[in-house]
Amino acid sequence: MAKAAGYEVVGSLQQTGRPRSKYHIGSGKAKELAEMVAELGAEKVIFGNELKVVQMYNLAKITGVEVIDRLQLILEIFRRRATTEEANLQIELARLRYELAHAREKVRLARISEQPGFMGLGKYEVDVYHEAVRRQVHSIEEKLSAVKKTRKLHRVRRRNLGFPLVSLAGYTNSGKSTLFNALTEENVPVDSRLFTTLSTTTRAVKIHGEKIMLTDTVGFIDRLPLTLVEAFHSTLEETIFSDLILLVIDVSEPMEEIERKILCCLDTIRDIGATGIPILTVLNKIDLLTKDSLEQRMENVKSYLPNLIPVSALYKINLNLLKQKMFSHLVQHVKSFFTVPINPESLSLLSWVFDHAKVRGVEYKKDHLNVLFKAMPQIADRIRYDVEKLGGVFKLEELEGVRAST
User: Fold this and answer.
1) What contacts 74, CB < 8 A, 6 or more positions away?
2) What is the C-alpha to C-alpha distance for residues 267 and 270, in angstroms, rounded to an integer?
3) Residue 246 near residue 168 (C-beta atoms within 8 A)
4) Who wins on pLDDT, 96 or 403?
């Protein structure tokens, strides 16, 4: 992650055992860290865990350089990757919520003596600084609330049109955006670095003539700080309202990495309230494996996840198989028949039916028309409502296709 944020890593230090109150690491280890910083000419220290403000202060004091933790590093990466107003607002909200939680302690320490990483507070009184941050948080929350309402309206519109919703999910850098491009023939940014996608992108995909809405979402990461989960909830909530989740796994990695990331993904899906939604497990990057290696990994993954589909998004291997599996999970067709009196309203309805269903036949009589069609249940229900509103008769014939279970 440090490399993803643009840092050159010149050294590392590790300590096992429980965290200590003063430095998070032991006093002896802290002195060793200070010596390493001086010897290597390091300009910053990054901790893989989350630190308390007082620990950052003490570490900055003993090392003479700025000290940041995992949360602040992730925020730096996010700031570099953000390309939309929503992503920038979410990142700023996460940063300010962190500031709000630690404002009083940070001001107190800054007034004791200015250490690296504790600059820029000036002579703010504690309450004044706390209130200033709180107002900024409130302002951003209002802006994100407006974005959320707009997203909800788009989602409701897609629902009303009867299109199934599919979300791409998975650990960061698993190949979600590459798969999204392959399925939609789009060109969203793709990069081998972490967190290339920070905002959702939704496009229509036609599979066997049926329109499906596909959404690319932000990548998961293990030990994602709660502050970031809350800030990015509006982005992740697209997954909650999906009819199907394509969980993308980089199957080319060592098995222990695959298992770790699978557990992270399942935990995140549970945390955002998306359990119960059908999952297709897309094992990506099979072009990097031998046949025997792939079979072994598939056998191991079976114990964690259902419905395995091996693909190479980059080389578009097995995409037709994936589309077929998506289709069988999503598309049920209702064969129906209706009769309505001929008038401007019924002709307008007929035009709508042609746009949103498969019309199998239209019969014009003297004072009424008969229409035979097939459509997904949501569309059929909408047509039934309009037909009955016009005083017509709606009849259900049969159901085509069965929603597969997971």
Assistant:
1) 1, 221, 224, 225, 228
2) 5
3) yes
4) 96
Residue 22 burial (10 A CB sphere; 0-12, 13-18, 19+):
middle
Judged against a pLDDT cut of 50, whether residue 349 lies above it is answered with yes
Question: Do β-strands 244-250 and 279-284 pair in parallel, antiparallel, or remain unpaired?
Answer: parallel
Q: What distance in Å separates the CA atoms of residue 147 and residue 151, rounded to the nearest whole number?
A: 6
User: Shortest CA distance to 265 belongs to which of 314, 217, 326?
Assistant: 217
Closest among 170, 187, 396 to 265, alpha carbons compared: 170
Furthest CA-CA distance within the chain: 96
Which residues of the chain does CATH 3.40.50.11060 include?
1-161
According to CATH, where is 3.40.50.300 located in the chain? 163-329
Q: Which residues contact 231 (CB under 8 A, 6 or more apart)?
A: 90, 91, 93, 94, 97
Classify the phi-psi angles of 73: left when phi > 0, otherwise alpha if psi is within -120 to 50, otherwise beta.
alpha
- Listed in order, the ranges of the chain carrying CATH 3.30.70.240 are 332-400
Please check whether residue 234 is in contact with residue 258, taking contact to mean a CB–CB distance below 8 angstroms: no
278-294 pLDDT tens trace = 899 999 999 999 999 99
pLDDT digits (tens, 9 = 90+) for 301-335: 999 998 999 999 999 999 999 999 998 887 766 78
Closest CA to 237 of 360, 347, 152, 139: 152
How many whole angstroms separate alpha carbon 275 and alpha carbon 128?
43
Residue 214: count of CB within 10 angstroms of its CB: 25
Give domain 1-161's CATH superfamily.
GTPase HflX, N-terminal domain (3.40.50.11060)
Q: Report the interhelical angle of 291-301 vs 255-271 (nearest 10°).
A: 40
Q: Which CATH number, 3.40.50.300, 3.30.420.40, 3.30.70.240, 1.10.4160.10, labels domain 332-400?
A: 3.30.70.240
Is the pLDDT reported for residue 189 higher than 60?
A: no
* Per-residue model confidence (pLDDT) at position 231: 60
Contacts of 63 (CB under 8 A, 6+ apart): 33, 34, 37, 45
pLDDT of residue 112: 64
Q: Kindly report the CATH class assigned to 163-329.
A: alpha beta
**Residue 49 dihedral angles phi and psi, to the nearest 5°:** -105, 175
β-pair type (333-341, 244-250): unpaired
